[in-house]
Amino acid sequence: MTKILVVSDIHANLAALEAVLIDAGEVDEIWCLGDVVGYGPDPNACVERIRDLPGLTCLTGNHDVAAMGEMPLAAFNSDAKRSLLWQKEQLSEENMDFLRSRPRDLTVRGEASLVHGSPRDPIWEYVLNTLVARMNLTYFETPWCFVGHSHFQAVFQYLEADDEFTIEVPRPGMVYAMKDRAIFNPGSVGQPRDRDPRAAYALYHPEMKQWEPRRVEYDIRAVQERILAAGLPPRHAERLAGGW
Ligand code: ZN
Predict the structure, then answer these.
(1) Which of 20, 102, 175, 233 has its CA 20 to 30 Å from the CA of residue 55?
(2) How far does the centroid of ligand 1 lie from the alpha carbon of residue 148, in Å?
(3) Domains in the chain: how many in total?
(4) CA distances from 133 to 6, 163, 182 (A)
(5) Whole-structure pTM over 0.90, yes or no?
(6) How far apart are CA 63 and CA 114, in angstroms?
(7) Which residues span the domain enclosing 69?
(8) pLDDT attached to residue 207
């Protein structure tokens, strides 16, 4: 049986990424929905860890684009901006090249569209509610679309009879039977914002058509110390403990 690890928004948090890779166990492929860098203390180490994973498909996210210097930083708040300038300074040429060569969207296995934001606006739009999910339905042709960006673990399933989406926030241990059309968000590895500070990710089981959102604990305090030691905004350390 094929098992695919779906991650997003690692945000330079190596400890969280390592915890996810261990918790996921052996997988056939890894799909990363962008924002490998931004916010956290380990941009180079995260790019290198991701880059070297076998079976990797990796997109670009808004923070990756900004760290490469290919987007005006005015779009970000002042703390995010400060962190992005630091990331840009830190990133090696080789790691910049890796980020630069990432696609913005992709169809994989003929059944899933991958984007960072939304199918309609792959870099910037947040799919946070059923209205936005509904408006995006005509922008992807595959049964499923996997998105990141919001840092919220969520499942949006389309009910054809009602021409409507439902939204579900996964509880621990839930495994979803994937309906004919749906949008899935694995949550954020390195900076969850759904008030659960544990690293978020998902396993996708294509033959069984199952989506399995998961959470795993990691050493948040150690990452907070590294953020502060690097002179990054203290707010980015604080929020990790609360998951906001
Ligand atoms: Zn992000």
Answers:
(1) 175
(2) 7
(3) 1
(4) 19, 12, 9
(5) yes
(6) 17
(7) 4-242
(8) 97
